[in-house]
Amino acid sequence: MKKKYKFMISALVVCLLFVLTIFLFTRPKSYEKSYKVSDYEITETFDKKNNYYKFSLKQDGTKYEIVTLSKYMGKKLIDDVKVLEDEEKGEKCILFKSGKLSTYPQCKNGEGLIDYDLTSIKDDDFYKRDELELIESKHDNAKFLRPLDMKFLVWDNKGYIYVDEKGEKEIHFLENESYYNNHSIQVGKYVLTPNYDEDYVFSSFYIIDMEKGKLTSWKLDEEISRNFYYLGVYDEKLYLVDRKNRKEFSLYPKRKKMELVSIDDEGIVWNNDWEKVSLTKLVSENYYFNNEKAFNYSIENDKLYLQLIDSKKSMLVSDKEITKFITMSGNKAFYLVKDKLYSYSTLYGEQLLAEYSEWNFNNINSIFIY
């Protein structure tokens, strides 16, 4: 009987070791490899931590590269490379073709890298962008062209206008109008707004769950002076520095939990790792979290540029005169051109999403997107 049990235990251990070995050798890992497709040398990179693929090739002294957000889909994913070129105009586009991933062209002209839609050599046989399905709606003098899976919060002095698939509704919570919305911030699906009805300190926040359009209030464990600033968000927690009281706090809206972070006259800042910083520096200067992103947007000379991770050059993606950069999410950027809200993504290009005349005069934390 004992031999039988020993055999069963040994067999179970062997099976577990076999399963563990298979798991360790087949689970996705970050990698970089090169291979040839149609005489082009492709460099393919997969980043497991941030779930993206990057593909690049060099031709005529120019490095063409794209990034696609995706979980692990295997290796050697580029099946073909297509080229569209007009030598007289000095324009050229490279399209990485894949049967498993959605890709897009990268183009150049005489001045540098540009988005496909900004070229004059577009050809539907070469590449045609997918079109977003948009739902049009209105609220007073605001007009929305909302994608099916997108929700908006628009500041209207006593709260917000909430726009989702059901339509528009007002979410008001202030007794007195507040023209400016200087201290609101988005943490994932939550938008936090201090109680502006309070005069000298903030002892409570209002939280809107943008997924559900639900409003709740949060009484803080400790008051925050009006002289504070946000460091950034990490792991669903919002970090802020109260300059007057020389303290750093974290706010966790999902659980309505507030924690004192600073200890022994030191706080912490995320710079792809936690770093200790003296409170003297935190209260006298402005520090902000640095989170590694696959897509990095910037405004240069009032135009929108995209720089991919580990790339040396930026690509012009909008030639409109940008008034204000609003936010980015994944590979999407959102920005204002006077009273119009636009989005840009590598797959869908530039898209008009909303118009609101008030944005001509006040665009500070004026819209949140989820």
Description:
With 370 residues, the chain is mainly β. Among the domains are: 31-118, no CATH class; 173-291, Lipocalin (Beta Barrel), CATH 2.40.128. Helix content is 8%, strand content 50%. The chain has two helices and 31 strands. The chain has helices at 2-26, 279-284, and strands at 31-37, 40-47, 52-59, 62-69, 80-86, 91-97, 105-108, 113-114, 134-139, 142-147, 152-155, 159-164, 167-172, 185-187, 190-194, 201-209, 214-225, 228-234, 237-242, 247-252, 257-260, 266-270, 274-278, 295-300, 303-308, 315-318, 324-329, 332-337, 340-345, 349-356, 367-369. A seven-stranded mixed sheet has the order 5-6-7-8-26-25-24, with no helix packed on it. A six-stranded antiparallel sheet has the order 9-10-30-29-28-27, with no helix packed on it. A hairpin with a 4-residue loop joins β20 and β21.
Topology (elements, then pairings):
Blueprint: H1 2-26, E1 31-37, E2 40-47, E3 52-59, E4 62-69, E5 80-86, E6 91-97, E7 105-108, E8 113-114, E9 134-139, E10 142-147, E11 152-155, E12 159-164, E13 167-172, E14 185-187, E15 190-194, E16 201-209, E17 214-225, E18 228-234, E19 237-242, E20 247-252, E21 257-260, E22 266-270, E23 274-278, H2 279-284, E24 295-300, E25 303-308, E26 315-318, E27 324-329, E28 332-337, E29 340-345, E30 349-356, E31 367-369
Parallel strand pairs: 8-26
Antiparallel strand pairs: 1-2, 2-3, 3-4, 5-6, 6-7, 7-8, 9-10, 10-30, 11-12, 11-31, 12-13, 14-15, 15-16, 16-17, 18-19, 19-20, 20-21, 22-23, 24-25, 25-26, 27-28, 28-29, 29-30
